[in-house]
DNA sequence: GCCAACGTTGGC
DNA sequence: GCCAACGTTGGC
């Protein structure tokens, strides 16, 4: 058995939200057209991995909930690009905004908090994942 | 809507 | 292989 890994996956709310995923239960994550992100999905993303569901270009942007990888990387049609399936896990009561991520010292090295980080599928450490989950589950 | 940061394309 | 031009992402 391989170790569970963690990812942050970005999507614009105009396209798909955590509420859409809660309704659908599961969805295919296709249309990624960046080689680095593709390589993660092709080589490293495994069934059962944890996903921070991130709303980009939003007001505000941030992590809106959790998902899990339901199917590891498989070829899109046409081939050359890869997709995965993700399944709904939970919706946070409130978004964990990018500003919050940036102001959390333990997340200073998290990829999404770095300037100019555009990668739509990013690796996240277990520690970072757990911190975001803890913040996300807090009721205000 | 602006624009900085980044990735890709294509001429040379 | 360099690099300018162009297109896209995404925070603000």
What does this entry look like structurally?
By secondary structure, the chain is an alpha+beta fold. 24% of the residues lie in helices and 36% in strands. The longest helix has 12 residues, at 126-137. 34% of the residues are buried. The mean pLDDT is 93. The protein binds a DNA duplex (12 and 12 nucleotides) through residues 10, 12, 34-35, 56-58, 60-61, 98, 115-118, 120.
Summarize the structure.
With 140 residues, the protein is of the alpha+beta class.
Break the fold down into its secondary structure elements and pairings:
Elements: E1 6-11, H1 18-24, E2 26-29, H2 35-43, E3 50-55, E4 62-75, E5 82-97, H3 98-103, E6 121-124, H4 126-137
Parallel strand pairs: 1-3
Antiparallel strand pairs: 1-6, 2-5, 3-4, 4-5
This protein binds a DNA duplex (12 and 12 nucleotides) through loops.
Number of helices: 4
Largest sheet: 6 strands, mixed
The helix-strand sequence is: EHEHEEEHEH
Distance between the termini: 38 Å
* Total number of strands: 6
Label the structural class. Answer: alpha+beta
Helix content: 10-25%
Instruction: List the quaternary state of the chains.
Output: single chain
Question: Which keywords apply here?
Answer:
140 residues, 4 helices, DNA-binding, single chain, alpha+beta
């Amino acid at each position: 058995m391989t170790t569970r890994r963690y990812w942050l996956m970005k999507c614009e709310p105009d396209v798909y939200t955590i509420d859409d995923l809660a309704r659908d239960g599961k969805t295919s994550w296709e249309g990624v057209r960046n080689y680095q992100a593709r390589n993660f999905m092709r080589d490293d993303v495994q069934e059962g991995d944890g996903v921070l569901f991130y709303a980009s270009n939003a007001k505000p942007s941030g992590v809106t909930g959790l998902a899990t990888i339901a199917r590891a990387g498989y070829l899109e049609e046409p081939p050359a690009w890869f997709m995965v399936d993700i399944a709904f896990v939970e919706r946070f009561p409130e978004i964990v905004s990018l500003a919050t991520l940036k102001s959390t010292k333990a997340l200073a090295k998290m990829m999404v908090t770095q300037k100019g980080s555009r990668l739509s599928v990013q690796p996240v450490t277990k520690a970072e994942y757990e911190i975001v989950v803890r913040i996300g589950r807090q009721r205000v």
